[in-house]
Amino acid sequence: MDRDADVIISGAGPAGTIAAWHLQKSGISTLILEKSSFPRYKVCGAGLTHKILSIIPFDLSEVIHTTVHDFRFSSGYTDVYTRTSELPLMYCTMRDELDDFLLAKAGEAGARVRTSEKVTEISQDAGGVSVKTDKGVYRSLFMIGADGASSRVARTFGLNSDIEWGMAWEAEVKSTPEMLQKYACTVFLDWGTFPGGYAWIFPKKDHFSIGIGGPAHMARRMPAYYEKFLSSTGIPVLETISNRSHPLPVRTRKAEFHSGRVLVAGDAAGLTDALTGEGIFWAVTSGIIAAEVIKCSLDRENPDLAMYSERINSEVMPEMLEAKHIGALFNAVPLRIHHWVRDSERVWRAFGKVLRGERSFIDVPLAFGKWKFLWNPLCLLASVIQKRKEKKYMNNA
Ligand SMILES: Cc1cc2nc3c(=O)[nH]c(=O)nc-3n(C[C@H](O)[C@H](O)[C@H](O)COP(=O)(O)OP(=O)(O)OC[C@H]3O[C@@H](n4cnc5c(N)ncnc54)[C@H](O)[C@@H]3O)c2cc1C
User: Fold this and answer.
1) I need a surface site. Which of 79, 173, 219, 371 has the fewest CB within 10 A?
2) 53 and 85 inside one domain
3) What is the DSSP string of 182-197?
4) ∠ CA(276), CA(277), CA(278), 5° rounding?
5) Are 315 and 330 in the same domain?
6) Model-level pTM?
7) In which element (H, E) is residue 169 found?
């Protein structure tokens, strides 16, 4: 078959560029098609938990703005305390810089990159995949849909079932140099105020990224929550540079993540976690798995990407499902957990270990020891309580 690349990748976010880098390093040619021109602003808090360092194959220091050691927690805008970790917990960047950096790395590894070119149609046959854009038509053996939350690839192949939609809202805010210096290592987290969601402030080198995330059906209440949260922090706003929302896709069940020679990764696969909304780590993880599976499939007479769905279901989905459980439990008894994090060294250390990748969500039920059997019924009950709280909050508008 005449082809433009072994693998065509739609989307140059972290899922697409990391997959391209790994494929190129294995001698597999890639063509990245990206609808925007780079660098491009992306609505995102751009907080990287420490655990991502173990899976990103580059030194990210040139795009890291700040290193986070402190968390300033509040609940209902009050009950404020700050917890500190000697070890770094998170790193804050801006997505235009991070994504441009990762795209450059993919390009250096040999990936062909066509930006400002939107994928409009995809079809496949026994020999490969045909991809139509607003500028041309391309052929490849495989395709990775890394085209984000509204993925055309996922929609074309019906790979978008069982997704629960969250919504997150992000403002980039200029403040005073004193405030930026004071909070350069601090993440603000207000939780237990907005059922099913929370508010954050991430420090950047010259501004703060301030956001609200929660269930999509509660989006109309987010601006009011944002205003109250911001005024409770005492952070003066000199200028709001940007202020936008974007959907958060959360996969709620194990599913098919491939169809024939096409697979989806990152947000296109619905891989943001329901507890924190973290998606960059999962975009990178699924991009790596995609590259590994395609590498094995290329050598086969009858290529098959079923292994990709199997690996996402066994390596990623258990974390996604447990994040949803923990989120429901938190939302059922938020104040109790807020005070637990304040009062218990063990709980605060566990919080840090999850961010650092030394523990994961699937370890949480294990902490219940012999009472572990109660975990699933408890989570079920908690999710009913959470739905009620969401309804009550919306009715009190
Ligand atoms: C407000 C907000 C805050 C967030 N904060 C965080 C955070 O702090 N930490 C974190 O880990 N996660 C965060 N997330 C989630 C994170 O942004 C996503 O999970 C992550 O961007 C997913 O990466 P991706 O590569 O799958 O997709 P994306 O980064 O969305 O990249 C997809 C790319 O595909 C391109 N594209 C789309 N359609 C086409 C097409 N038809 N043809 C060609 N190209 C196309 C897009 O232009 C885009 O560049 C946040 C999300 C939101 C909305």
Assistant:
1) 371
2) yes
3) HTTTEEEEEESSSTT-
4) 90
5) no
6) 0.97
7) strand 163-174
3-state secondary structure (DSSP) of residue 80: strand
Residues 281 and 336 in one domain: no
How close is the Cα of 267 to the center of ligand 1, in Å? 6
**How many C-beta neighbours within 10 Å does residue 384 have?**
11
Tally of domains within the chain: 2
Cβ–ligand 1 contact at 322 (below 6 Å): no
- Per residue in 44-96, pLDDT (tens digit) is 999 999 999 999 999 999 999 999 999 999 999 999 999 999 999 999 999 99
Each residue's pLDDT tens digit, 290-347 = 999 999 998 777 788 999 999 999 999 999 999 999 999 999 999 999 999 999 999 9
Q: 397 pLDDT exceeds 90?
A: no
Any ligand 1 atom below 6 A from CB of 319:
no
Q: Are residues 303 and 372 in the same domain?
A: no
CA atoms of 24 and 187, how far apart (whole Å): 36
Report the atom number in ligand 1 closest to the C-alpha of 282: 19
Residues 151, 247 within the same domain: yes
**Ligand 1: which of 267, 288, 320 to mutate, judged by most atoms within 8 Å of the beta carbon?**
267
- Pick the residue whose CA is nearest to atom 3 on ligand 1: 44
Would you give the end-to-end CA distance of the chain in angstroms?
60
Q: Give yes or no: residues 113 and 151 share one domain.
A: yes
Q: Which of 292, 320, 348 represents a domain boundary (last residue)?
A: 320
Domain around 375: 321-395
Atom of ligand 1 nearest to the CA of 40: 49
Q: What is the pLDDT of residue 252?
A: 94
Q: Is residue 147 in contact with ligand 1, taking CB distance under 6 Å?
A: yes
